[in-house]
Amino acid sequence: DIQMTQSPSSLSASVGDRVTITCRASQGISSYLSWYQQKPGKAPQVLIQAASSLQSGVPSRFSGSGSGTDFTLTISSLQPEDFATYYCQQSYSTPYTFGQGTKLEIK
Amino acid sequence: QVQLQESGPGLVKPSETLSLTCTVSGGSISGYYWSWIRQPPGKEVEWIGYIYSSGSTDYNPSLKSRVTISVDTSKNQFSLKLSSVTAADTAIYYCARHGPGGYFDYWGQGTLVTVSS
């Protein structure tokens, strides 16, 4: 299985901050990497697919980059509704696997 | 707008079979991959397996011996059966859709299944 490791596991930030979350794959996955946002009691929602493609309807303050084994999710200016848990997921090969999550909290 | 809705018992006894159904509305089940995904409370997200609309399947090896996913295109539904459950199978179970890119673009709201006697 391909292991996905996110860092940090948790992060405190303020509204307006620029935030970066990292995801590392245990082997190369090309650009088969997606990012999700999950709020309490809700299903995850896709933000970024194919490493850097913004999903329709997602604000442009979210961006993704990377290929191979190292990927980043950047939120350019945090808004109150962005405080949530973020997951990366690889779809290079099955079993599809997710990172352990990064909980973004208000400072 | 595609919508997915899970249904099934919220409580299953140990050693019995967990059965869930996902009903797809607002779009056809044809031409897409349909997955089951679970998340134990406070733990990591785990992909269980998928079925393509044609009926082909792929399962997570960690669960393969206990999982069956089936599809009923006439009802726009697909289903999960997980046998010989234990407390470790207690989780929120989600159904979700993905295309060839492998990212999950539509999800059900999730249903909590508790394994307990």
What would the keywords be for this entry?
heterodimer, A: 107 residues, seven-stranded mixed sheet, 11 strands, B: 117 residues, 52% strand
What is the succession of H and E elements of chain B?
EEEEEEEEEEE
Helix content of chain B: under 10%
Which consecutive residue ranges of chain B, at least 5 long each, have pLDDT under 50?
none
Note the gap between the termini of chain B: 39 Å
Question: What oligomeric arrangement do these chains adopt?
Answer: heterodimer
C-alpha-based Rg of chain B, rounded: 13 Å
- Shape label of chain A: globular
Major sheet description of chain B: 7 strands, mixed
Shape of chain B: globular
**End-to-end CA span of chain A:** 36 Å
Mean pLDDT of chain A: 97
Report the total helices of chain B: 0
Structure class of chain B? mainly beta
Helicity level of chain A, as a percent range?
under 10%
Largest interface: A-B, 24 and 22 residues
Strand residue content of chain A: over 45%
Rg of chain A, nearest Å: 13 Å
Give the SSE string of chain A.
EEEEEEEEEEE
DSSP summary: helix tally of chain A: 0
**Strand share of the residues of chain B?**
over 45%
Overview of this protein structure:
The complex is a heterodimer of chains A (107) and B (117). Chain A is mainly β. Chain A has strands at residues 4-7, 10-13, 19-25, 33-38, 45-49, 53-54, 62-67, 70-75, 85-90, 97-98, 102-106. In chain A, the strands form two sheets. In chain A, strands 2, 4, 5, 6, 9, 10 and 11 form a seven-stranded mixed beta sheet that branches. Chain B is mainly β and 117 residues long. Chain B has no helices and eleven strands. In chain B, the strands form two sheets. In chain B, strands 2, 4, 5, 6, 9, 10 and 11 form a seven-stranded mixed beta sheet that branches. Chain B has a four-stranded antiparallel beta sheet with strand order 1-3-8-7, with no helix packed on it. In chain B, a hairpin with a 4-residue loop joins β7 and β8 (77-82). Chain B is globular and about 40 Å long. Chains A and B meet through β5 and β10 of A and β5, β9 and β10 of B.
